[in-house]
Design goal:
Blueprint (H helix, E strand, L loop, with lengths): L8 H8 L3 H6 L5 H7 L4 H13 L7 H5 L9 H6 L23 E3 L2 E2 L5 E5 L30 H9 L5 E5 L8 H12 L6 E5 L2 H4 L6 H7 L5 E5 L9 H12 L4 E7 L7 H13 L2 E8 L13 H11 L10 E6 L4 E5 L4 E4 L3 E5 L5 E5 L4
Parallel strand pairs: 3-4, 4-5, 5-6, 6-7, 7-8, 8-9
Antiparallel strand pairs: 1-2, 2-3, 9-10, 11-12, 12-13
The protein binds iron/sulfur cluster.
Amino acid sequence: MAEVSLSLLDDEAAASSEDWKFQLRHSVRSTAELSRKLVLSDEERTGSERAEAEGFPIAITPYYLSLADPNDPSCPIRRQVVPRAQEAVEVPGDLRDPLGEVAHEVAPELVQRYPDRALLLVSDRCAVYCRFCTRSRMVGQGGGPRSLERLDGAFRYLEAHPELKDVIISGGDPLAMGTERLVELVARVRRIPSVETIRLATRVPVVLPQRLQPELLAALRPFHPLWVMTHFNHPKELSERARRGLEALADAGFPVMNQSVLLRSVNDDSRVLAELFRGLVRSRARPYYLLQTDPVRGSGHLRTPLSTGIRIMEELQGRLSGIALPKFIVDTPGGMGKVPVGPEWVVHRGDGVTRFRTPRGVEVDYVDPPA
Ligand code: SF4
């Protein structure tokens, strides 16, 4: 295999461009472009050709691609965004819509799976297409940002259901939309008196931090409380540029919560995750969830058994401060809700006495107060 290098001047200029629209325009979207930037393995070449032909598209910003090792297909950045031949392999448990979002659609583009919150799908476009995406059935399929008219039924449903206090704006990626469109949308949701919290679910801080310019943050600020839910999965993603983006969000008053997806041969190692979680906390982002990868069709090669996540949580408990330690979550198939999972610390529950094993490896009794 011939070595390729990303040090070509035009690649460097594109990767460091602060113009987010330029980054999107110059994203890599084909096997031919990928093979000019990376030495593709046979698996990647076959997977990319298939992705181009069959639907779940490729998109990688020059910035994000610059974090990848051009010569190593096992690079954790590449495993997240470069398609592989195994995407064609179905494994037991695979589902097209693992969270049952279609079945839980209560109005056009509005999904309700819990009594107090709802998910508003505002676009099918993302800055990158992650190969493990739960919504691979619909993202990148055309249509782009949804108009306010198309979302009108969703707004009216939210108005008619004041018990819905928390709206998660997702897609696709809402921050891949133009500022004017995004602000219009957030303002419309904010006008619903019963909505208390709005969350923006986005991978932009990871893959396109150039989008987090003062102009965008100033335009969104009037609509606080606005939370940002993002997905850093590996410490390589916490570049100096990404850290500046996270700090800009925190300075502008956006609480940032991180939901890492547990991915085979990307981050299924407690040392890797400890480094990631500590780095996030240093940048004022809270490691909130470690998510078991949803069983979405085509992601079998990226999923780990549940026991891997439980072992990792056991290794991290007591080693990481509570503010750096996320919950390990399984979002149960069919949209039946999230369940926290973890190691078992209770050895025995007796009458008024509970015996624990601790992360230090000792057993300790806790005695209840008298009834
Ligand atoms: S950015 Fe989010 S919605 Fe878009 S492909 Fe990645 S995981 Fe899916």
